[in-house]
Amino acid sequence: MLLLKNSLKTMQSNRICNLFKIEKPIIQAGMIWCSGWELASAVSNAGGLGLIGSGSMYPEILREQIKKCQVATNKPFGVNVPLLYPNIEDHIKIILDEGVKIVFTSAGNPKTYTKLLKENGITVVHVVSGVKFAVKCAEAGVDAIVAEGFEAGGHNGREETTTMVLIPEVRKAVNLPLIAAGGIGFGSQMAAAFCLGAEGVQIGSRFVATPESSAHINFKNAVITTPEGGTQLSLKQLTPVRLIKNDFFNKVSALEQQGASTEELSILLGRGRAKKGMFEGDLIEGELEIGQVSASIKEIKPAAEIVDEIYNDFLQTINCVAKVVS
Asked: Model-level pTM greater than 0.90?
């Protein structure tokens, strides 16, 4: 019981909890086609930090999602902004107009908008896949870093550095509040990330399999039935992305083995492939982005239940570790 009390006391001094003004250092990733206001507000209401995934939204859709989230929760929430998004300037303007307080940026140079966002009182976090990018984040003045390992779903680093290796290396390189991502879906994995130097975790795949996720039910069911080895990093010549192995993946893999050019791969990818798979539920020709941890996800659960389960399991795990050490 004393160990549990000490664990809870430690959370009161946790830099991620203090930075975002949340109860539990669990961040729901801002995934395209999966992370609308319903999921973000549910996670925030459960004591974590929910993120709206703006990468799949037209500007006015993003504005609508922010407004709905503001009604659905009085807790902190944020917006994830992929910097390669073609309407990025419109998104930034909407974020400023609507008074969003937390922004996670990814897939681009953190210097691009960090200064502007911080001047408007916004907490800025950037997602990286390597140590050199973490150092650039510190130089850009971000408030925290998400270090995402190769196990993660969606777009990923070309170096294929695992979370187990990445987190301690980033921890040694920078002193910013550090959030671990990639291969984390359960409390024991959260505890392992903390042992490596993280102060919070960002989780995507687990929150796809929730009623509040905007993903198609076909995709949710595909996630909870994906076996070990059922995903693989693909499209490394374009933008690396971890996919469930389906007919579309097999076509990509065959082209890559034949030494296809980036142009040939781009033609196969086409437009709207991720929407087709994750939002419209085409499990054959769609792009199905998910992490390796999907092999451990066996059921669709409410987001709040997942947050509580992860956090309680995290506390139990660190208490078990403390007992073993003592």
From this structure: yes
